[in-house]
Amino acid sequence: MSMNPNSKQLADFEQDNTVKRWYIPFSHKWKSWLYVAPAILLFMSIFSMLYLLKIERLLSWYTVPYFVLFVVATIWFKAVRKHLTDNLLKRKDMFQTAFAYPLLVQGGKVFALASTVAKQAQRIICKTSGCSY
Predict the structure, then answer these.
(1) How far, in Å, CA of 26 to CA of 88, rounded?
(2) pLDDT of the chain, 133 residues: tens digit per residue
(3) DSSP notation for 42-103
(4) Cβ atoms of residues 88 and 29 within 8 Å
(5) Do residues 111 and 104 make contact, with C-beta atoms less than 8 angstroms apart?
(6) What is the secondary structure of 110-129 as a DSSP string?
(7) Contact 41, 73 (CB under 8 A)
(8) What residues have CB less than 8 Å from 100, skipping those under 6 apart?
(9) Strand partners of residue 102
(10) Which residues are within 8 A (CB) of 33 and not within 5 positions of it... i.e. 6 or more apart?
(11) For the chain, what is the radius of gyration of the CA atoms?
């Protein structure tokens, strides 16, 4: 059984990390409770600095703890995002090039439901490989 060019392209895309990294934020596997704590700290530090701006104490020593909290929360948020991305890229079953959910298989035909993310991903795949959609 020979591989046609389209299936070879799809097999190459399953190994391509750039497409996977683009697709991860749109997947439901990206949602995690690990984001809650750094997000709360980020918003708390931002609102605290806005409050200090309102009471005209932004350019004082009162800002330092909130600025440090903002920097720490930002680093923590990015570390969580990188951790989740790396773990999802290591999983073999995470990325499938068929960006549709199969609803029914009948008589050798697969009826699937696609989303707007699937259309965007198809455009990116076709731009990088030169195929038409």
Answers:
(1) 13
(2) 444 555 666 667 667 777 777 777 776 666 789 999 999 999 999 999 999 999 999 999 999 999 999 999 999 999 999 998 888 888 766 665 555 666 777 887 767 666 655 555 556 555 555 554 4
(3) HHHHHHHHHHHHHTT-TTSTTHHHHHHHHHHHHHHHHHHHHHHHHHHHH-SSS--S--EEEE
(4) yes
(5) yes
(6) EEEEE-HHHHHHHHHHHHHH
(7) yes
(8) 112, 113, 114, 115, 118
(9) 112
(10) none
(11) 22
Q: Which residues pair with 111 in a beta bridge?
A: 104
Residue the block writes with tokens 């995690």? 32
State pTM to two decimals: 0.62
Whether the CB-CB separation of 39 and 70 falls below 8 Å is answered with no
CA pair distance 129, 133, nearest whole angstrom: 11
Single out the residue of 127, 130, 126, 118 nearest to residue 23, CA to CA: 118
